[in-house]
Specification:
250 residues; Rossmann fold; seven-stranded mixed beta sheet; alpha/beta
């Protein structure tokens, strides 16, 4: 069954937010507050599996990355780990942009990538400062889930992709069975406690499990991608479904 075109907006809704604007501001403020220790916390809280996920995702697009003259956008790039994973596999004439709406995150990404030719831009994923059909590949790793309007985000991705261009959205999932049970205990109880202790900020790590729970299940997300304009959409689970890759073709 297709999605109702008149359905309510579905997106990130941090506690205390009432509309798209306030949700976006709350998310930006949260990520700005944890930017100084963001990388360390990601590696600790994921048990370093995040590095494998970035590598595996980048590897999926070797053919595009090595094709001459390709243009790539890593959206909601944070401090740039997915961007760097793409760059390590890219050909010499491939141009890669990293974009995020948190100034603090982009600054850290730029510092980490000072020895590369990567381009960094502070930009809102719901209103990108790029012309239509600009990119051959667009990726987003663990950032799309934080958009205040998922459908608007998907439409904007479709807009900036070239005809035949590809989209890759890597994000958390909710595994089933006993693995899912153990994961939920860790994700909802242990992770927020550790994250808060190490960062000194409670909000983002209380928000994280709630944002994953709110994110559409794979079947719904794939339908939203098709409705947004992707002619083909697939989902590949990573690590028993703890994370997964959504892949779409414009």
């Amino acid at each position: 069954m297709g999605l109702d075109e008149n359905q309510r907006v579905v997106g990130a809704t941090p506690v205390g937010t009432e509309d798209r604007a306030s949700a976006s501001k709350a998310v930006r403020d949260m990520f700005t507050s944890i930017a100084p220790r963001y990388d360390l916390l990601n590696h600790i809280l994921s048990l370093n599996i995040d590095r494998l996920w970035w590598w595996r995702t980048a590897r999926q697009f070797d053919e595009i990355l090595k094709r001459p003259g390709m243009k790539v956008l890593d959206l909601c790039c944070g401090t740039g780990d997915m961007t760097f994973a793409l760059n390590r596999r890219a050909g010499p004439s491939t141009t890669i942009f990293g974009a995020d709406f948190s100034h603090a995150m982009i600054e850290r990404a730029s510092q980490k990538g000072s020895a590369t030719n990567l381009r960094w831009i502070e930009a809102d994923a719901l209103s990108l400062p790029f012309s239509d059909a600009r990119f051959d590949l667009l990726t987003s790793a663990f950032g799309f889930r934080n958009l205040a309007d998922y459908d608007a985000g998907l439409r904007e991705i479709v807009r900036v992709l070239t005809p035949g261009g590809q989209c890759a959205i890597l994000d958390f999932g909710e595994p089933g069975g006993w693995i899912g049970h153990a994961y939920r205990i860790y994700f909802k109880k242990i992770l927020p406690t550790i994250g808060t202790l190490l960062s000194g900020v409670r909000g983002p790590y209380a928000y994280l499990p709630a944002s994953v729970e709110r994110f559409p299940a794979p079947a719904e997300m794939l339908e939203r991608m098709r409705q947004a304009g992707f002619r083909e959409a697939t989902w590949t689970p990573y690590t028993f479904g703890v994370a997964g890759l959504y892949r779409g073709f414009k």
